[in-house]
Amino acid sequence: MKLSNTKRLERLHDRYMNGDLSRRTFLGLTAAAAASAGLSMPWMGRALAAVTEVRFDGWGGTVQDALDKFAFQPYTAKTGIKVVQGSFGDENEIITKIKTAKLGDFQIVHSSGVNYYIKYVNAGMTSEINEANIPNMANVLQPMIEPFRKLTPKLSAVPYDYGTTGIAYNTTVISPEEAKEKGAALLFDKKYAGKIGGYADMTTRVWYAALATGQDPNKIEDMDAIWAKVREQRDLAKKFWGSGAELMDLLSKGEIVVTDAWSGRVAALQDQGHPIGYLDPKGSYAWMEDMLVLKGSPMAECEELINFMLDPATSIAVAEGQSYPPALDPTKVKLTEKIEKLPAFDPTGTMEALTFADPLYWAENEDAWTKQWDRIAKGA
Fold first, then answer.
1. Cβ neighbour number for residue 48 with a 10 Å cutoff
2. Residues 371, 376: Cα–Cα separation, whole Å
3. Are residues 230 and 368 in the same domain?
4. pTM score, two decimals?
5. CA distance 37 to 4
6. Which domain holds residue 25?
7. Environment class of residue 4 by beta-carbon count within 10 Å: exposed (0-12), middle (13-18) or buried (19+)?
8. pLDDT tens-digit readout, 310-343
9. Is residue 167 domain-shared with residue 147, that is, in the same domain?
10. How far apart are CA 98 and CA 116, in angstroms?
11. 254 and 372 part of one domain
């Protein structure tokens, strides 16, 4: 059946909004088709207009401050394209917003690695990156790229940084020797009741409960023991924090003396002179983050921005500013002494010393475990 010119234009538009066509290809095809047929569609004015801004949503605080200062502002100065920013404390929060928003309202998300990548893929939110437009990907650690490529051979996200969720403790109260001796058990020590914190997140709570009960977080055999341990910590805790900014506030003011914590936020506190120690116990929760491009985004501009962010000088400046190691391969790019001293930094580039969550295992159990965690968090 022969398509009308109007229908052909509509299909081209649908493919573009679904991320199947780059903006450059879309504009070339639609301009030619419309000109030959003398047609104009309601959306054509918007689509053909030059892109003047890109939307980015991230974790706020010191992390986003570093991105803004060392990546976004220089990018805008170079290209004239503004990076409009939003922030979130829990990535599930932004996913909910994306689901109810118009296609293209959200574009790049500073996402939490393959565990969350699965969620975007399954929800049909992902685009398809043209890696040829991001040549600086050549410097990205292959062990970070591979887990994404196993899920989708054609990527819609590029790894950008990594870290660990280890144990932060106030060194005026807890000695490094005590922290090392107790490890994960420190988060459940009755001696510090009312001064314990933790991230209000199912994965972190289950992970550390597994370590405390001597189980493999990627192969848990006794969930009853896990939930009992989660309840035990809940009853000992002063508060489960919901953002990096809140974590830093609780630690810096001494309201809590021990908590699981994001390595970069602890490094930032140490740089500020606060008496905070950091320990990655055996099996500590390691994670990576990526720049994920959503369906309906202006692909060429998003790819250009990510490539700019991956430029070694830019990526290194951001890493030093946010206190998380970059995704750059240290065997290919000379990193600074400050980065090499960051918690979680892997000088080998193999990532073999870090323990990451098995994305398929955790995705399989996430719904049931999240419901149970939500009940416990509310007092059940």
1. 13
2. 9
3. yes
4. 0.84
5. 10
6. 5-48
7. exposed
8. 999 999 999 999 999 999 999 999 999 999 999 8
9. no
10. 14
11. yes
User: What does the alpha-carbon distance between residue 260 and residue 247 come to, in Å, rounded to a whole number?
Assistant: 9
Partners of 196 in beta bridges: 237, 258
Question: Could you tell me which residues come within 8 angstroms of residue 93 by beta carbon, excluding any fewer than 6 positions away?
Answer: none
Q: How many domains does the chain have?
A: 3
3-state secondary structure of 186: helix
Sequence-distant (≥ 6) Cβ neighbours of residue 371 within 8 angstroms = none
Please name the amino acid found at residue 7: K
Judge whether 276 and 171 are in contact, CB under 8 Å.
yes
Q: Work out the pLDDT band at 2, boundaries 50, 70, 90.
A: very low
Q: Which residue bears the tokens 């493999």? A: 216
Asked if residue 251 lies in contact with residue 269, where contact means CB atoms within 8 angstroms, the answer is yes
DSSP string, 79-143: H--EEEEEE-SSHHHHHHHHHHSPTTS--EEEE-HHHHHHHHHHTT-B----GGG-GGGGGB-HH
CB 233 within 8 A of CB 187: yes
- Give the Cα separation of 166 and 143 in Å (integer): 21
